[in-house]
Design a protein that fits this description.
CATH architecture of the largest domain: 6 Propeller
Strand content: 35-45%
Structural class: mainly beta
Number of domains: 2
CATH topology of the largest domain: Neuraminidase
Radius of gyration: 23 Å
Shape: globular
Length: 435
């Protein structure tokens, strides 16, 4: 039952009175699998009919289908082609009906209300093997139906790819409004699919570079005022906001360490900027770089032992890797162009970056030693990459027509798409999976 235990852990939904129960899951791996590492993968045809139980069942199915489609690994089939209707979570589907439309996988389920609580049972089927792959049950408050849909999406994604999903997450970003000369930049947050957007600041000050902690629902960001800048911590659960303190000079580009116990940031004094790190428990800070150049955009490796950063010490912005204590800095980019905004992937496999070559701004990834550079996007102003928590998708901002929009691309560069959020936005940062 190893697969079942893994699926249950991946699908845990930490809201009041939730439980997940395995229902007859086969212990063998699925005969259908999706290879996330292939750039030429054909999306898996999957059927996601409306879950029984009225409109909320249809809404949940719609969110699941949209999540899977945006991943680029799945192709939800047109519901108009479905010949079997009114499926029940308690009854095995008519596999012949689904084989006729070439559905490789099928998701079905039932939604009920019990004592004012929403209960959702769902099944994942391998159609051609006529085998149940996964069965889970969630109970939640009715208003959290979207989170249940995201959790089901994550469970399906993990069962068919072997890797964690990224759908039950949030994205913090800078929401932009107004023209170029009077632009308002507010801190905003939304679900990863663009739903439930809300503002965290009122626009009285300009905010930049928000970043999530990988261990809690906490963010750090820079606030810019006419008299200077500050770095703040903001706890999304309690609403508490606090400054990291007063610094001599301009402070910017904060980012958490993997354990959430430290924040690296840059301080600019007299035209020179260096990287510092602060211990959030003792509030003591240490200077990590002392080169007479611009050192900024520090990002920790997942194990916390190294930092990748941007420096122009060689004459143009390039990427360097050093120890987390500032030791042994080593340049890793030699391919030509100007490299900025590096960010280590959560898996440690890649470093994402912004690259400027001529008039083009590109989003790319490379190995931590600088090898295997791969350009994923190219545009007039593509910048600010941020990783999904499973390390398979990168979100970034793209400017067109004077407005920045949020986009995403997978690590193969094959699945490039605008995010559903309709407004202007920049500086995205992805949360870890919600608990």
């Amino acid at each position: 039952m190893t697969d079942l235990r893994q699926a249950l852990r991946g699908a845990a939904l930490a809201i009041a009175c939730l439980f997940a129960v395995g229902l007859g899951v086969q212990p063998a791996r699925a005969e259908i699998e999706v290879n996330v590492n292939r750039g030429d993968v054909q999306p898996l045809p999957i059927a996601v009919p409306a879950l029984g139980g009225g409109q909320v069942g249809a809404d949940i199915a719609g969110v699941i289908a949209a999540n899977l489609q945006r991943s680029g690994l799945f192709r939800p089939l047109d519901p108009a082609s479905f010949t079997e209707r009114d499926l029940s979570a308690a009854v095995q589907p008519n596999f012949a009906s689904w084989k006729q439309i070439n559905a490789q996988a099928l998701v079905n389920g039932q939604v009920t209300m019990e004592g004012g609580r929403l209960k959702v049972d769902f099944r994942l089927w391998d159609v051609f093997a006529e085998q149940q792959l996964l069965g889970l049950q969630f109970t939640s408050s009715p208003e959290n139906w979207r989170r249940v849909a995201h959790k089901i999406s994550d469970a399906v994604y993990e069962r068919l790819t072997g890797e964690k999903g990224y759908f039950d997450t949030r994205v913090v970003f800078v929401a932009e409004s107004g023209g170029r000369t009077n632009k308002t930049k507010r801190l905003a947050i939304m679900d990863q699919d663009g739903a439930n957007p809300s503002y965290l600041t009122d626009g009285a000050v300009t905010v930049m570079t928000p970043r999530f902690s990988s261990t809690s629902q906490e963010i750090t960001y820079m606030a810019l005022r006419p008299e200077g800048s500050s770095i703040y911590l903001f706890n999304l659960e309690t609403g508490r906001r606090e400054s990291l303190g007063d610094f001599k000079g301009m402070v910017f580009a904060p980012r958490f360490s993997p354990d959430g116990g430290k924040v690296a940031f840059s301080v600019e004094r007299g035209g020179n900027s260096d990287i510092f790190v602060m211990d959030l428990h003792t509030r003591t800070s240490a200077r990590l770089t002392s080169d007479p150049s611009i050192d900024t955009s520090a990002s920790f490796s997942p194990d916390g032992s190294k930092i990748v950063f941007n420096s122009d010490r060689s004459g143009s912005p390039q990427l360097y890797v050093m120890g987390a204590d500032g030791s042994n800095p080593k340049r890793i980019t030699f391919q030509g162009g100007r490299y900025t905004a590096p960010v280590w992937s959560p898996t440690g496999e890649f470093i994402a970056f912004t690259k400027q070559t001529g008039g083009q701004f590109q989003i790319g990834v490379m190995r931590p030693d600088g090898g295997d550079e791969r350009i994923l996007t190219s545009g007039a102003m593509d910048e600010g990459p941020a990783w999904a928590p499973n390390g398979r998708v990168v979100m970034f901002s793209r400017e067109a027509g004077g407005a920045s929009r949020l986009w995403s691309v997978d690590v193969t560069g094959r699945v490039l798409q605008a995010m559903p959020y309709p407004g202007a936005g920049s500086d995205p940062a992805w949360s870890p999976l919600l608990n």
